[in-house]
Design goal:
The chain is α+β, with helices and mostly antiparallel strands. It has one domain (about 80-270): C8orf32 fold (Roll), CATH 3.10.620. Helices cover about 50% and strands about 15% of the residues. The chain contains 10 helices and 8 strands. It has helices spanning about 5-25, 30-35, 55-70, 80-90, 90-105, 110-125, 130-135, 145-150, 155-170, 250-270, and strands at about 130, 155, 175-190, 190-200, 210-215, 220, 230-235, 240. The strands form 2 sheets. The protein has a 6-stranded antiparallel sheet. A two-stranded parallel ribbon has the order 1-2. The longest helix is centred in the first third of the chain and has 21 residues, at about 5-25.
């Protein structure tokens, strides 16, 4: 069995365990419905069954640690390394970094609500939407914030990632931020349909409804104000939360392998 196949098997077992543990003790459909939207709850931890064999638990733990990489509550930015990385990319990256740092300076002393709005506005205005194949020549590439500023373009994942690391750099705790894969309702040629999409969720307070930062909508709305978005799974540098009932784990595994690679490249550019 290939390493990817083994990883997929482990992930599927992990996902099933999350669903089983969350469903234990559910006695009525109303409570079950609320559990299905646990992506709204920043206090919902990732879970696994400790009834698994010890060797398997050790392997899963090793994979999760390698996956998450940046566990912690604070992020520091090595400005010297960031400048070096920008110069290596080229003049457009240096200019983008200068504007990015200017945004940080202007927002750093502001209330957190203003920092959220400032970052959302800066990234939405600075970056134009473009598919990865047109920007990077690849079907799916997760760019670091510096790479996105260098190109001046990116897809929904690049917008969400740039906002996520911008807010970490401005002192917002990772526990209050989640990158969320959603199924978005879209209209094509007058016909409603669905598309995979990524947004960033910000939780003003623990247990409260999140605000959604989206490259498709400049204004920030609470999750209840975005009925066009259906959450699939969410993650940050502290964990993974999967919606109950998800059976196809192969897509999350593929996406999260990109997250692991992205975290390493972001670290190399100066985020610690």
């Amino acid at each position: 069995m290939s390493e990817k196949a083994r990883d997929l098997t482990l992930f599927q077992g992990f996902a099933r365990t999350i669903a089983i543990r969350k469903m234990q003790g559910v006695q009525n459909s109303a409570l079950k419905s609320r559990l299905q939207h646990s992506w709204w709850r920043p206090d919902t931890p990732p879970q696994m069954s400790w009834a698994w064999p010890r060797a398997l638990l050790c392997r899963v733990a090793t994979h999760l640690l390698a996956l998450l990489l940046c566990v912690g509550t604070a992020v520091s930015v090595d400005q010297v390394r960031l400048q070096q990385a920008a110069r290596a990319l080229g003049p457009a990256a240096v200019e983008g970094l200068t504007a990015w740092q200017g945004m940080f300076r202007s927002a750093s002393q502001s209330p957190e609500k203003i920092r959220i709005e400032t970052v959302n506005r800066f990234i939405n205005q600075r970056i134009r939407f473009a598919d990865d194949v047109n920007v990077w020549g690849e079907a799916d590439y997760w760019a670091t914030p510096l790479e996105t500023l260098h190109k001046g373009a990116g897809d929904c994942e690049d917008f969400a990632i740039a906002k996520y690391f911008s807010l970490l750099a401005l002192g917002v705790a990772p526990s209050r931020l989640r990158l969320i894969y959603v199924r978005a309702t879209v209209i094509r040629d007058g016909v409603p349909g669905y598309a995979a999409h990524m947004v960033l969720a910000y939780y003003p307070q623990q247990g409260r409804e999140p605000l959604v930062l989206d490259n498709l909508v400049d204004s920030i709305h609470p999750a209840s104000g975005r009925p066009d978005l259906r959450p699939i799974f969410s993650f940050n540098t502290e964990g993974l939360w999967e919606q109950i009932g998800t059976t196809a784990a192969s897509v999350p595994l593929d996406r999260l392998s990109r997250w692991r690679d992205l975290l390493q490249r972001v670290s190399n550019e100066g985020f610690r």
